[in-house]
Hints:
Distance between the termini: 40 Å
Oligomer: single chain
Structural class: alpha/beta
Amino acid sequence: MKTDTSAVNIDRDIGDFQYKVDYGYDAGVGLDERVVNYISDVKQDPDWVREFRLKALQTFESKPLPTHWASKDLEAIDFNKIRYYLAQGQRATRSWDEVPEDVKRTFERLGIPEQERKFLAGVEAQFDSEAVYSNIKKAVGEQGVIFVGSTEGLKEHPEIFRRWFGKVIPTGDNKFSALNSAVFSGGSFIYVPPGVKVKHPLQAYFRINAENFGQFERTLIICDEGSELTYMEGCTAPKFNTPTLHSAVVELIALKGAKLQYITVQNWSPNVFNLVTKRGLAHEESEIKWIDCNIGSRLTMKYPGVVLKGRKSRGEVLSIALANNGQHQDTGAKMIHAADETTSNIISKSISIGTGRATYRGLVHVPKHLKNCKNNTECDALLINATSRTDTYPAITVRGTGNSVQHEASVSQVSAEQIFYMQQRGLSEAQAMSLSVNGFVNDLVRQFPMEYSVELKRLIELEMEGSVG
């Protein structure tokens, strides 16, 4: 069956525009208790959330910046110059016609309504600090599926939200998870009831429009026993000369026998610091799969993880990272085996162009009391130029007997002979280079839904322009 991909626009420069917006709510510049209380007041947080935020602020202030890696890149962030909350309103509309005009034209230019009509079961669109639109198809809602913003989720479904919120990723996990916990706003809350299989993906789209801004969405997804869900997120921002901060927290819970797939297509502009914490908790015989594409940003530090808590649970991370001039993609995966007969799979592919740097950083842990656990890790890097760089830092700890772990890593350059051969068949050098790179990542790109895989190949082709010679 032929799939129409014309509406899914994620070209390299499609997000590079900005409209002037009159914000109704602005917490000002810098971070202190006043800002945290302002956010709580505006969002009308219950007391426990305000206390959670203020305690997280203290944790953030007490933790130093990570110094063991990417420290020089992080020094460019001045937390006192960031704006932590900007919004036009607090509640997402269910009707596209009710979205404010200046915000609507941004998402219409990015093709969001078209995507929703063509192949999504539901969509949420976040503009700076708040979701402006959130809707789910009637048939999916009638199955009992909840898909709302995080603010709405904690107020309208507290019995589910509070039970799992902050349980997979504690506030003190790292400095940036603490920062998110203090000022979080926006993000998705999803609950899929037992046995419900959502046939079409749910999607959230995150847009940063303002300069010197930080976006701190908080996403919580719970798949109850035997349920299935695919969730996709896309991200863009215009190009500014000043640093922009994106620091999200994503918590996934797959209960017994559930299957949860989380897909990210990131196309940030080169001034964005993308510092996110993503982790899933897999119960007995459940499966959590992260599919991650990282293109753009000045620095990305992202290591999706799965805690394999239940027997026969399975975790998987498939990631593609492309680092162009002046960019550092520091990405990887974490697999924590905590039950017998658990299985994990990590496949990472990176491409470094010009002065770009790609880093794989992985963690696999199997304690000594476990039996029949399996892990496979593959890290493949492709260097396009003599000035590009790649590093691999795997940390694999396996104790006890009866477990199986394998690790493979490779670094290669684009084959001059291959390029020459394709040129003899009539391709230009740039076309040959693009074809070679797409062949390198093709097995992972095929894991994306059809609507995205075609566009990802086109996005890589655009990134390859100017890389030859």
